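Render this sequence as a predicted structure.
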Amino acid sequence: LRRKRMYDFYYKLVNIALARVRDFRGVSGKAFDGRGNYSLGIKEHIIFPEIDYDKI
């Protein structure tokens, strides 16, 4: 993702999707690689409001 789409996704991830995760305790600082990239695994993709659970 680049530019506006990247920032839109990040905003949605932090403020909407991760807020829906039960027992969310934050993200680890150890998940950064040596180049500034961050790796994050999501077990349930239905935390995003655009995904309709009935259509999965």
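Summary. The chain has one helix and no strands. The first helix runs from residue 3 to 17.
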